[in-house]
Structure formats: structure tokens, C-alpha cells
Amino acid sequence: MIHGISHTETRLDAELLALLRRRSIGHVELRITSIDRDAPFGNYFHRAELARAVRDEGVTLSLHSFAGVNLAEKIGRIRETAMEIVREQLDFGEAIGAMWLTVHLGTCGFGRRSPKKRERLALGAESVLRLLERTAGYRIAIALENVERLPDAISKCYLGDSIDDFAALMPALVDDRVGVLFDIGHANLDPETPPEDFLAAVAGRTIGLHLHANDGRSDQHAPITDAWLAERPGLVSAIAMAGRSGAPLIVEHHSIEAAELSNCAIERALGR
Questions:
Q1: pLDDT tens-digit profile of 104-125?
Q2: How many CB atoms lie within 10 A of CB 261?
Q3: Strands, E, within 148-223: which ranges?
Q4: 3-state DSSP assignment of residue 108
Q5: How far apart are CA 239 and CA 165, in angstroms?
Q6: CA geometry: angle at 64 spanning 270 and 178, to 5°?
Q7: Which of 14, 210, 217, 272 counts the most CB atoms within 10 A of its CB?
Q8: For the chain, what is the domain count?
Q9: Domain CATH number, residue 193
Q10: Exposure of 111 by Cβ count < 10 A (0-12 exposed, 13-18 middle, 19+ buried)?
């Protein structure tokens, strides 16, 4: 069972390295926080240094794409630019040996129950297929993340916010280089589908998990506690099954301290 951590930067800094060694963490997901022309991921020397650090530490690696890129944008010219930005991130991941790039598929300016959502899901799937063509021969995969479900009354929604979205998406994306990055915290915000049921529905395509806690009302990325897990025995079993299948269990927080708290709670619940 591989325990992992999501980091807020694209580098292995001293604090992160200390945690990896102290907790024997085997996987790191680095978050891309800038897509500007001078962003670190586009720098050759940064890539070489990072690839060397990853090899030295003996960890596996993934990347989290810049979340504001919309692969389902309805305006073709803008969507083409979004695809190019994601391709650049895939180039970076391939160069440093990342297993996958975690991607949010897109955002829509209408509520989640709109019939127009199916059309935008199809646009997003088409963008992913075109990215696979443009990166033919690469080893790095594209991991589609389930995202936060917004209230029905809001005239905005995220693609991939429900089990129904993935039921529509995944049959169109049967390539071996496309999988699911299942986010437990996001799934916990859906009042209709228990997270363990959602995870079971995509289990055959899941290549990693994001683990963090919330109160079921907002995406807090709070530390996971023994009490939070004790209230969800079905979810704990589902996480354990995913971990046994080889999917890294990645705690995703905004600080090293929160990540360590969650990692300890998960270890106690699942066993080392």
C-alpha cells in the first residue's frame, strides 16, 4: 500500500523531504501553480534538477495540473489554447518521470442539472483524446479528477462532479493512458451518492486517491482524524481496497502539518 502526499509546489524542498523520510512516504504529487511563460515547469534546468531529486529519493511522482484550465470550453479557439497548456504540462511530467497528470475537466456557466452539461462533457472527452494523440508515445497518463459538486441553485457547475458524469465520460476514454484520480473529499460533498459507492463505480479505472476531510458542506481540505474515519467504515474499506490494488493514497492539504496528521490517521485506520 503506497502512502503519498500532495505538495503545493513543483519542487522537493527540505521540509517535504524530511516528511518523506520520516514517514516512509513513497509517492509525491506536485502541484503546478503557474502557467505563465516564466513558470518553473518550463525551465530545462528545473526539470533536470527535479528529475534527479526524485530518482535520489526513490519515490514515484505525479503532477496536478493548473486547475483553471477548461478543456470543455465551448469557444473552440480558447479550448485549443487550453489543450496546448495541458500538453505543455504533460511534456513536463514526461521529462521528470511523472506517472500521471491530474486534470480537472472544466467549468460550465449553468447549473449541474442542465441538459447542456452532456454536450460539454463530450467536448472535454474530445479534448482529452486529442491530447493523447499529440503526446503519442508518452508514458505519462491523464487522470481525470472528480470535483466539487456545487448546489443546484448556482448557475455554475464543474464537469466530473457526479457518478453520472463519469458514467458518460469513461466509455469514450478507453485508452490505457486515461484514468481516474478519485478525490474522497470532493465525493463527500455529494448528498446523493456515498463516496464509497462513487469509488466502487470507477474502481477499475482508478490510478490514485486524494484524501482529505470536510463537513459535507464545503471543500475544506481539513486534516483527516480518527473520529472522521470512524464515522465512515464503508469508506475506510473502500480506501483500503483501492490501496491494495496499487493506487497511491495521497493526502492533499495546504500544509505539511495537516498532511502529517492525515497520514498518521490513515496509517492507524488501514495499518502500515
A1: 999 999 999 999 999 999 999 9
A2: 18
A3: 157-158, 178-183, 206-211
A4: strand
A5: 21
A6: 85
A7: 210
A8: 1
A9: 3.20.20.150
A10: middle
pLDDT single digits (tens) 206-261: 999 999 999 999 999 999 999 999 999 999 999 999 999 999 999 999 999 999 99
Q: Strand (E) positions, the chain? A: 3-7, 27-31, 60-64, 100-103, 107-108, 141-145, 157-158, 178-183, 206-211, 249-252
Q: Render pLDDT for 10-60 as a digit per residue (tens, 0 to 9).
A: 999 999 999 999 989 999 999 999 999 888 888 999 999 999 999 999 999
Q: Would you tell me how many other CB atoms lie within 10 Å of the CB of residue 163?
A: 17
Q: Please state the pTM of the whole predicted model.
A: 0.96
What values do phi and psi take at 129, rounded to 5? -60, -40
Cell numbers placing 236: 475506510
For 128, the grid coordinates are: 482529452
Half-sphere exposure of 60 (CA within 13 A, CB side): 18
Instruction: List, in order, residues 6 or more apart from 95 with CB less than 8 Å away.
Output: 47, 51
